[in-house]
Design a protein that fits this description.
The structure is a single chain. 32% of the residues lie in helices and 31% in strands. It has a four-stranded antiparallel sheet, with no helix packed on it. A two-stranded antiparallel ribbon has the order 5-6. The termini are far apart. 4% of the residues are buried. It is an alpha+beta fold. It contains two helices and six strands, in the order βββββααβ.
Length: 127
């Protein structure tokens, strides 16, 4: 599997847990006011504060570009560049740069909203 984007959960500013795509991550929260954020080293989500009574919370992590979109953009760029080299039609050179420009815009210009965290549901109170 292609692993170009590694997301990590930083709990209370010191504990780090790695997120794996398609696998749930279970994090024990001992205190009622737990703070966490998701980061990939360059981008970070907004800090989430869990201050309710201890319960089970399910969060969904959404990223601006996932690994499949990144790989698709690189393949399209290489394909259009090869077509441009063999045919000389400048339209293919413009098309080869479009995926790179779009990814550049998403990664660097929309930096604050690159990683988003959504509360899916709360499974009720624990004892």
């Amino acid at each position: 599997m292609l692993r170009l984007l590694t997301l990590r959960v930083v709990l209370n500013g010191r504990d780090i847990y790695e997120c794996r795509e398609g696998h749930p991550l279970i994090i024990p929260c001992k205190t009622p006011s737990t703070r966490f954020r998701i980061t990939n080293g360059f981008h970070a989500s907004k800090e989430i504060l869990v201050k309710d009574k201890p319960a089970i919370y399910f969060y969904e992590i959404e990223c601006g570009i996932d690994n499949i979109q990144l790989l698709t953009g690189l393949i399209l760029t290489a394909l259009f560049l090869c077509i441009f080299i063999f045919t000389g039609i400048r339209l293919f050179m413009i098309a080869a740069n479009l995926p790179l420009i779009i990814m550049f815009f998403i990664v660097f210009i929309r930096k604050r909203s690159f990683i988003r965290v959504h509360l899916v549901k709360s499974a009720g109170q624990l004892n």
